[in-house]
Amino acid sequence: MQTNSFFCRGVALVLTLLLAVTAALPGLAVYEMPIQTARETESVYLFNLDTGKPILAQNAEQPRYIASLTKMMTALLFLESGKDLNEEITIPASLTQEFKDIQNANGSTMNLRIGETVRRIDLLYGLLVASANDAASVIAMDVAGDLPAFVTQMNARAKELGCTSTAFTCVHGLYDYGNVSSAEDLAKIAAACHANETYMQVANTPSYTLPATNLHQQERQITSTNLMLNPEYAYYRDYIRGMKTGFTTLAGRCYVTFAEKDGHTYGLVVLGSDLDNIYREASEILDWAFASFSDRQLVDTDTVLTTVPLTKCRSEDAVELYAAAPVSGYGHADDAVTFAFSVPERIPATVKPNAVVGQATVYLDGYEVGTVDLVTHREYVSDFRTDSKATLLLLAALVVILIVLGFVTLVIGGGSLNLGRRRRSVRRR
After folding, report:
1. What's the CATH number where 100 sits?
2. Which of 60, 133, 149, 164 would bridge with 107, disulfide CB 3.0–4.6 Å?
3. Quick one: 190 and 315 in the same domain?
4. Sign of the four-CA dihedral 132, 138, 141, 144
5. If pLDDT is split at 50, 70 and 90, which confidence band does 333 have?
6. In this structure, what DSSP letter does residue 265 have?
7. For a pLDDT cut of 90, what percent of the chain falls above it?
8. H-state helical runs in 183-335
9. End-to-end alpha carbon distance in the chain
């Protein structure tokens, strides 16, 4: 179940860059928050994972306590470490005080014990399915040797992903004390997690059976804290994919998830909500997204996209250019379609039909959709060709006239010669 670390980092970097460049793009649409969704005090960030385009943003840059959303980074570093997930490790005595602190803080656990031997993969399931704080501490020790060193790695990785409002102070988020991030930053971390196949497989698991260990003689069942994965829950949605929940008194209810439907993927971050509203808000926002955005044709082959000035042609001023093929894109009905043309400043006639004259890059709401060739639909004839044709026709006419005149002359001349011969014959008689 290990994932190639280099590949995952590469994919994650691409996704992060997609998210990062959106701030520099002009003319982006501003969509109104769906009715009765998030309170003004919450942080909300909805983005299209396929393009990196932000869809909804409310307090998205504001640093906030993030509770167990911290565990996304813990899991990411665990998977990127290259550790054998099927290998067993033994929980060290050095975590004794940490386990006591977790218990005193009433943090969720998978009831791990000092000296217990467990598989790494079971720790990962405990971390992401049950949001087990003790699993996070064991993972951190396994990867970095001690908790502070792992926290250092967490902050370094956040900077690599382009996070600017993130500061980790613990490995699980149970202790708020300066452990903060923003909705935009968490979107970048979530995109990196989404690029990891193993992460998504585990995070999208509704329930998991922990095997027996040396200190737990019976199998144990754990259930996902993400209620939207539960088919019996009121706000269950079959498009939900993972990711992570979180809660502390200071952080409120926090939620990061992805939604996949009809070949499109959205990411959603909600911070500072409450138990009565968090999943309702998420379902309303994502339902709105899938209802409001759709695939549609942006460019057809029958509409003039642009013109190019035409030279050496008195009858036409410009060449009309059309898309060589239709172009479609995914977006909101209000999204504007714009173009960037790569065409010559002018073009001399003659221009043949279906000639490729340039290219058009198509943008939907400022985001590049694709590039298409620009072609002509008819012929544009040059003055030289027109004049030459006329000249040839005139010459042909003159030749015909000359031939006719010659023939007439010949006929008339022949008739006069015959008349003279008859007169001479009469005189001789």
Report:
1. 3.40.710.10
2. 133
3. no
4. negative
5. confident
6. E
7. 77
8. 183-194, 197-203, 278-292
9. 132
